[in-house]
Specification:
The protein is built from eight helices and six strands, in the order αααβαβαβαβααββ. A six-stranded parallel sheet has the order 3-2-4-5-1-6, sandwiched between helices. α5 links the parallel β2 and β3.
Length: 283
């Protein structure tokens, strides 16, 4: 997929504002949808006495799922089969001082894996758990989902916070992680990303989506060279969806190479009031 670097760099803050103002409705879901529900129309489009969500007797349409008032439809369980995306190939950047950058990247990863695409996440700045009790919940979820894998490139704790690891050790871990990222991008360049990839294939054989979590933070902190990060982005194959997250400072150096830039801005955060990370929401 051909990337348009200029198209994604503008209007990211507006996009976030629009989502808040619409109340989460998808395009086209305006007030008319509510009016349709109130008319009580039946399947044929005529007038009915009961609410539209009531069970309908005698509905012989193939695949119809009956609904109960106030209830939802349960998706049919079906196995995930290897598949290939048709429109991957954008460079995404998620940065800002608000909560949700890694969460957003994971959400995209889960969505892509659910379609049978091969996804891999390499985390900078974050190490593995120091105990079973401290394991991040997303790791368990990723392990349970075919086609989604992850690895860490950092110390347990956080650079400059809750961590007594010296600067040289952090830089060494980040540098090793970046070299790993370069190998993953090179592997993707050798793979046919327009074709399905076995869900159990190692990431070294290519992936459709590569998430470099907190790599922007590592670059902003000088643990990874900005020029090296730019070179990696420019070397990425055209069909690889590359997701970069992290950093409280604007990564303006990525403006010309990214297709999508989203700023996650904090309005209020419980951590400022002394609330620590909570299991199930932050890890």
């Amino acid at each position: 997929m051909r990337r348009n670097a200029d198209a994604g760099a503008d209007g990211d803050d507006d996009a976030a504002t629009d989502e808040r103002n619409t109340g989460g409705h998808a395009a086209g879901e305006d007030g008319d949808a509510g009016e349709d529900r109130d008319t009580g129309r039946d399947d044929a489009g005529g007038e009915g006495d009961g609410p539209a969500c009531e069970d309908r007797d005698g509905d012989d349409r193939a695949g119809t799922v009956e609904r109960t008032p106030g209830g939802g439809r349960t998706p049919e369980a079906r196995p995930i089969e290897p598949s290939a995306p048709e429109e991957f190939g954008l460079i995404q950047v998620w940065w800002g001082d608000g909560k949700g950058k890694t969460t957003a990247a994971l959400g995209m990863g889960f969505r892509a894996a659910g379609h049978g695409f091969r996804v891999h996440m390499l985390q900078f700045m974050k190490g593995g758990a120091s105990s079973v009790e401290d394991v991040r919940g997303e790791y368990n979820a990723v392990d349970a989902l075919p086609g989604f894998s992850y690895e860490n490139a950092g110390h347990y704790g956080w650079h400059g916070r809750l961590d007594e690891t010296d600067e040289d050790a952090h830089e060494m871990e980040a540098r090793a992680g970046f070299e790993r990222a370069e190998r993953l991008v090179a592997a993707a360049s050798e793979a046919d990303l327009t074709a399905p990839i076995p869900l159990d294939a190692p990431a070294d054989e290519g992936v459709h989506m590569l998430i470099l979590d907190e790599v922007v933070y590592a670059a902003n902190r000088g643990l990874v060279a900005v020029d090296d990060l730019l070179a990696l982005v420019r070397d990425a194959p055209a069909d690889l969806e590359l997701v970069l997250t992290g950093g409280h400072e604007e990564p303006d150096y990525l403006a010309d190479v990214a297709d999508l830039i989203t700023r996650v801005e904090k309005e209020k955060h419980p951590m400022d009031a002394g609330q620590g990370a909570r299991k199930g929401t932050e890890y």
